[in-house]
Amino acid sequence: MKVSFGLILIFLGSLQAWGQFDAYSRESELAVLLDSIRAAKNNAGKENWNTQFKKLIEQTIHEPTVFDITFTRLRTLGVIDSPDKLVRIVNWNVEQDDGTQKYFAYVIHRNSLKDTKHKVIELIDKSFLLTAKPEETLEADMWYGALYYQIIPVEKANKTYYTVLGWDGGTRMSNTKLIDVICFSGNSLKLGYPLFKSGNTTQKRLFFEHSERSVMSLRYEPEYKRIIFDHLMPETPTMVGFYEFYVPDMSYDAFILDNNRWVLKEDVIGINKKDVVVSVASINDKSGEVTTTSTPGKWIDPTGEGKGSSNDVHVAVLPDSDALNTTEDSKKPVKKDKRTMTALEKYEAKKKHKKDDEPPTTLNPGKKRRPKK
Q1: Ranges of Polar residues compositional bias (predicted)?
Q2: What is the pLDDT of residue 353?
Q3: In this structure, is residue 3 part of a structural domain?
C-alpha cells in the first residue's frame, strides 16, 4: 500500500510538471516562426508564417506569467512596459512587397501588481478604412497601425491615461512619428483623448510626417516631464503641405506636462547628458546575439527602439534587417549595400550620421498613406 501511494504521488507530480508553462520552450517556438516571417520572400509566405506566429503569441500572452516573460529571444518583436508595470504592449510589423506595412499589436492590462488576472486586447489595423489623419477617438478594432516604443502614464481625474509614442514606416517617400493616448474602460480600450493643447486648440493625437531621407527625433524626458521633438519645416516654401519633403530645421519643440495635460511649448532647449553611464545593447555580427555593455553617457536617440522588460532592449524591425535590438551602432559597423537595405535600416542609418548635438516639429497634419490593395 505504501508503494502504491508513492507511485500515485510521483504520477501526480509528473502531471503537474507536464501542465506547467515552459516560457523558454515557447520563446524558442515563437523565435522560429518570427524568423520565418522575416525570411519569407513574398506576401503569401509572410502571411502564412504570420498567421502561425499570431496564434501562438496570443496563446502566450494569455498565460498568467506574461508580465514576467522577457521575450529576449524574439529580437524583432517590440515589447514595452509602462513605468507602473500595469500595461505591456506586444507589437510587430510585416513589410509588404510594395513597401507598405501591416501592423499587429496586443495590449495587456492589469489593475494592480497583485492582480493575478489580466486583460488582453488586440489592436486591429484598419488604416485602409480610416481618414488620412484620424482625429476621433478610436476603438481597438479600428486602429491606424504603428510600432510603439514608449509609454508615459498621466494621472487625470483619478484615472490613468497612457501616452504612447510610435513610428509608422509610411511610404517609400515618408515616415511618420506619432503621439497618442490609450485609456481603459472596463474590458475595452480606446485610442485618443484630448490631452494635447496647442495654443487654443486641443487634440486627441498627433502625427508628424517627414521625408524618408531625414530623421525626426521624438522622445520623452522624464527629468523634465516633457516630450521633446524636432521642429519640421518644408525643404522649400513651395513644398508647404507636401510632408514627404518636410525635414527638421535644427530647433526643438516640446509638450510639457502641465496640470495633467500636455501643453505645447515652442523653441525649447535640448540638453545632452554628459555625466551619466548608460547601458548599450549591440548585435554580435557573427553570432547575432544581443550583448549589453556600459559606456560613459552621451545622448542616445531612442526613437526607433523599444525597451522591453527586465532591462532587455527590443526593437521591431523590418524583414531582413540587421539592425535588430540595437540602441547604438558598434564602433566598426558593417557596411551594407544601400540597394538591399529596408526602409527602417535606411532610417536607422541616417541616425548614425546625425551629429550628437543636433537638436531633436511645428505640428503638421501628417498624411497616413493607405496600403495598396
Answers
A1: 287-296
A2: 56
A3: no
Q: Do residues 351 and 222 touch, judged by C-beta distance below 8 A? A: no
- 2-52: per-residue pLDDT in tens? 445 444 444 444 333 345 789 999 999 999 999 999 999 999 999 999 999
Q: What is the pLDDT of residues 254-290, one digit of tens each?
A: 999 999 999 999 999 887 665 555 444 444 444 444 4
Distance between CA 208 and CA 218 in Å, rounded? 9
- The domain tally of the chain equals 1
- Please report which confidence band the pLDDT of residue 116 belongs to, taking 50, 70 and 90 as the band edges: confident
- The answer to whether residue 223 sits within a structural domain is yes
Q: Would you give the DSSP letter of residue 73? A: T
Residue with cell 521633438: 229
Residue 363 included in any domain: no
* Other Cβ atoms closer than 10 A to 105: 23
Look at residue 272 and tell me if it is in a domain: yes
> In sequence order, what are the beta bridge partners of 234?
246
Instruction: Tell me which residue of 123, 153, 128, 148 sits closest to 138, measured CA to CA.
Output: 123
Q: The domain containing residue 259 runs over which residues?
A: 22-352
Q: What is the pLDDT of residue 351?
A: 59
CA-to-CA dists, residue 341 to 11, 35, 87, 217, 346, angstroms: 55, 17, 33, 21, 6
CA–CA dist 89, 149 (Å, integer): 9
User: Which residue type sits at 242?
Assistant: F
